[in-house]
Prior knowledge:
The complex is a heterodimer of chains A (252) and B (95).
Chain A: H1 3-26, H2 35-63, H3 69-74, H4 85-88, H5 94-115, H6 121-149, H7 153-166, H8 178-185, H9 196-209, H10 232-246
Helix pairs in contact in A: 1-2, 1-8, 2-6, 5-6, 5-7, 5-9
Chain B: E1 8-14, E2 22-28, H1 32-43, E3 51-56, H2 68-72
Antiparallel strand pairs in B: 1-2, 1-3
Amino acid sequence: xxxxxxxxxxxxxxxxxxxxxxxxxxxxxxxxxxxxxxxxxxxxxxxxxxxxxxxxxxxxxxxxxxxxxxxxxxxxxxxxxxxxxxxxxxxxxxxxxxxxxxxxxxxxxxxxxxxxxxxxxxxxxxxxxxxxxxxxxxxxxxxxxxxxxxxxxxxxxxxxxxxxxxxxxxxxxxxxxxxxxxxxxxxxxxxxxxxxxxxxxxxxxxxxxxxxxxxxxxxxxxxxxxxxxxxxxxxxxxxxxxxxxxxxxxxx
Amino acid sequence: xxxxxxxxxxxxxxxxxxxxxxxxxxxxxxxxxxxxxxxxxxxxxxxxxxxxxxxxxxxxxxxxxxxxxxxxxxxxxxxxxxxxxxxxxxxxxxx
Lengths: 252, 95
């Protein structure tokens, strides 16, 4: 595998993670529990879609095959999306959205921090810019986990249920294959496993502070990174791709 | 489910020009930390500021409009409190 193929694939993973999460978060627009939170969720959606834009643009440049960032974002088939299963999970209640966000934010923080040392200047620059946003996202989601977990009996039970449901998707964030090996040897990325322990430490610390129980997992759910998505992914893409597929090349 | 509304907070933003904090508006939040986060999201998303203050609205003591006569009118007749008896030299800005 060439470095170019590997880099393209790796960029798509991160781009798809952020785009699909952004699409999910934007579903909250106009439906937030309170006005302030509605705006917060929309801001975070725009932040991650902004990250996706930069990643797709660089991916298109790396691929150098005439495809634009928009083509990559909107005109691929379901099996070609490489996002982790976690980010495509439905919003559920506000607590579930926060748990999903919290598990993802924790990963992004450590991942982007590691990528600051990338030998690829563009990757390092994207990481640096995104980190500022991610720090806020994590502060926001972690505070909500604590508030809901250590809140009323109902909020505690509901957020615990979401933790039990979503924890099994966290492990896929640490997916590794040949792509990682190639990029690791070129110094473009670090070893993702180096911060896996730290990740679970950080996550568990907040869960305990929120008086939540850390679920004991018998298995991890994975497949998104190799294109095997959960059933809700098709519906998400249908909505997200509708405009570009109906009016190809449309602009506004 | 509890339907009790969160307390109201007043938000003050210091803009980039380095002026003092100015009242930007109000919002609801369950605690100070959430109020800061919400203020960041609601009032600074177009880079309006570099510093945020929040205070619970019920902590503010306001003057009573009914007292306006005794509070403010007396100063109307004291023109000597205004520095209007000086000629400002040419070239002095920001007066």
